[in-house]
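The authors assume throughout that readers already know how a fold can be written as discrete tokens. For illustration, here is how one protein appears when written out as sequence plus structure tokens.
>
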Amino acid sequence: MPYALKIALLIVAVIVLDFVMTALVVAAQLNRRVGEEAIKVLSSAKNDQKEVIREADLAQLPTSVQKWLRRSGVIGKEKIHSVRLIQTGRMRTAPGKNWMQVEAEQYINVDEPGFVWKPRVQYAPFMKLLGMDKYYQGQGSMELKLLALVPVVEAKPGMEMDQGALLRFLAEMIWYPTAALNDYIAWEEIDENSARAIMTWAGVSAGMVFHFNEAGDMVSSVAPRYREEKGQFILDDWGGIARSYREFKGMRIVNQCDVVWKYKTGDFNWLQIEVTAIEYNQEGLFAAKV
């Protein structure tokens, strides 16, 4: 091999190694920052309070919501103050685009609504998108970076982001059913198998309709939610569709679901997610993973 070619290959190898090392360091820093944000979100959860849900607590709710909560197994269980969960699934950015595998952790404060979602998206071989989706003190934000270095999504707090994050928290009540009893949610009966939840937090209000089957399982939800397209915010219907249910320590919840945007051109299923582990009222975070 010519000497000049060896030198060129060595230089390329050094550059690649430097890039890889930089990406690893930055990913570790991002992971640490997301963990700090999650701890901040969880800090006000009242995990030490051991309030047990009674049948009488359900009395003022719509019949379909009462049936769902009984079906979920909340009677006799402690009220949920915080949640930590692990998910797997796949996502895509637009109709017709390829699916990307996703692993994620999520930390949720149910007492003072907030969450941090920490996804790891397999964008391409050896290339991951890292970042977080956050809702804290009524403000929503999201960031995703390729290899933790190159910004792909940067959405800062604002009216549309705040409304969207609130609706996400409300929709994900399927994983922490006792939130339905909290004062920041008001319920309106629609019919025997559906009800509207209106959530108000930090000066923002939004409503979502939940549909239930005859057995009492929550089967879908829908609400108008803002999405960004070419720098403009558009209001479209958005919601979830339950695919299966699983019991975690006596609590029956939706463990597989699709998340769907309802465009005028048709439904766009952009996320398919499965909860593989969930814990309630636990302190701290899961072991770190870069």
About this structure: The mean pLDDT is 90.
